[in-house]
C-alpha cells in the first residue's frame, strides 16, 4: 500500500466515526461533519487525478517515440 492509500483509508474511517457521532448526538456541528466528508472526497479525487496525470504523461512519451519512428520510416522511402 502506498502512503496516499493509507491516508485515504484513515480519512474514510474518521469520516464514518464523525458521521456516526453526529447521528447519535453530543457531537460536532453539521458543518464540521460535512467538512470532514468533503476533505475525504477531495483527497480521494486528488489522488485519482494524480494517477491519471502520470498515465497521460506516459502515453504522451510513447506517442512521441512512435511519431519519431513513423518519421524515420517515411524518410527511408
Describe the structure.
This protein is mostly helical and 77 residues long. It has one domain (3-76). It has helices at 3-23, 30-76. The model has no long low-confidence stretch (mean pLDDT 88).
Brief description of this entry?
This protein is mainly alpha-helical and 77 residues long. The protein has helices at residues 3-23, 30-76. The chain has one domain (3-76).
Draw up the topology in text.
Blueprint: H1 3-23, H2 30-76
| Count, helices | 2
| Biggest pleated-sheet summary | none
Radius of gyration: 23 Å
Low-pLDDT runs: none
* Residues in helices, as a percent range: over 70%
Proportion of beta-strand residues: under 5%
The computed structural class is mainly alpha
Report the principal-axis shape. Answer: rod-shaped
pLDDT averaged residue by residue: 88
**End-to-end Cα distance:** 50 Å
What number of domains? 1
Q: Keyphrases for this structure?
A:
77 residues; mainly alpha; 2 helices
Amino acid at each position: 500500500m502506498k502512503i496516499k492509500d493509507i491516508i485515504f483509508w484513515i480519512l474514510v474511517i474518521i469520516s464514518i466515526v464523525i458521521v456516526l457521532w453526529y447521528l447519535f448526538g453530543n457531537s460536532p456541528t453539521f458543518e464540521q461533519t460535512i467538512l470532514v466528508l468533503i476533505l475525504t472526497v477531495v483527497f480521494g479525487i486528488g489522488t485519482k487525478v494524480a494517477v491519471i496525470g502520470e498515465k497521460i504523461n506516459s502515453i504522451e512519451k510513447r506517442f512521441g517515440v512512435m511519431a519519431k519512428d513513423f518519421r524515420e520510416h517515411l524518410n527511408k522511402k
